[in-house]
Amino acid sequence: MKHFYFTITLLFVCSLAFAQKNFQSGYIIQNGDTLRGFMDYRGDVRNSQEAIFKQNESAAAQTFTPDQLQGYGFDKEQKMFESHLVPATTEGAAPQRLFLNVIAKGKASLYYYRDAFQKENYYLAKDNGELLALKQQIRFETDPATGRKRKVTDKKFLNVLTVALADCPSMSRQQLLNANLAHKSLIGIVAKYNQCVAPSEVAYAQQNKKSVITVAPAFVYALSNVSISGDSKLAARDFENSTAHYGGGISVNFTLPNLNEKLSVQTDLLYAPHKFYSYQYEENWAGRKTSSEATFDLAYLKLPAQLRYTFPKGKIRPFLNAGPVFSYLIRFKDTNIINSSFSSTSYTEETTALPEDGSKPYSFGLTSGVGLSYMLNGKILSLEARYEVTEGFSGVSDAETKLQSTYIMLSYGF
């Protein structure tokens, strides 16, 4: 039941996270006039569809579509958006007006937006003229000699760049051939062209944000339980929840600014010990008394890899994450101590709880968590509650195990 409540809480926090607004200093351009205030800073997809603005922090928010504004921007982030009628991308579709992110501006301008399918779209325009789509096609072809499939990239955008930028004599064919359909590469080409044809004009080029990597020692407090299913006698036994155990390791987080500035990848390398115990007693019709004590004492090295969403504002920032986890068994000891007595005789036998070599060295599972981060002395202090389900340690088909763990993890990044 506690795991059910944990899941409901996670879903609730998730819904709050994606609904939260993040107002930053910015401006809108309407009818040629610039009005300063605060803009809601969202992800690439939402930024292309609407602009949410308020004149001051206490004012009501107003939502504008690309038909209502000429553009908008953010001061600190140094991002500009312009309203443009974007050509249809598929046959039979109608052009649509969107806010395009201006990533280079000058005699030649470069625009970008991410659509609802998370596809990146780039456009080139000269002297504020027609938008020219920059596209490439990726396909797989079979090599007739080897029969192997190989990836082929048809850089159709090179033809567009070659024709559009032909009036720059210093722009070599080789420079264009080396271009990729990506922010950094395209911005470099367009910036070089603008410097070539209009060296006295002030041109704009958006700076790419680099991924921020945070490494943190982590301390873990955990509670776990094991369930066993199958035809084995172990499946009929109740194992007490693992006593509270302590572990730790290293956490590494790196942001994904080119995808979404609120997203990051959270990976950890953690040491996680577990111990489970079961006591069973029975007396048969003849009076023989038998007790059995089964113990599993084990430890894993765990490597979870999660996608994290962090609330974008405030000194204390909630976050949530989820993803797969790989566990490698580094210690395993199982015992089953049987005591039997009848009348005046008794004996004790110690065996393994599972058949010999019955453990498996690795397991996979899923994990999710919610937490809070706080900037302390320039470093990130994080407290997280995490729930995890993995396959367990048994490699025996008639004694399948499942481990469920709840963690409290404290880390201090640098």
TrEMBL record:
<keyword id="KW-0732">Signal</keyword>
<feature type="signal peptide">
    <location>
        <begin position="1"/>
        <end position="19"/>
    </location>
</feature>
<feature type="domain" description="Outer membrane protein beta-barrel">
    <location>
        <begin position="224"/>
        <end position="388"/>
    </location>
</feature>
<dbReference type="InterPro" id="IPR011250">
    <property type="entry name" value="OMP/PagP_B-barrel"/>
</dbReference>
<dbReference type="InterPro" id="IPR025665">
    <property type="entry name" value="Beta-barrel_OMP_2"/>
</dbReference>
<protein>
    <submittedName>
        <fullName>Outer membrane protein beta-barrel domain-containing protein</fullName>
    </submittedName>
</protein>
<dbReference type="Pfam" id="PF13568">
    <property type="entry name" value="OMP_b-brl_2"/>
</dbReference>
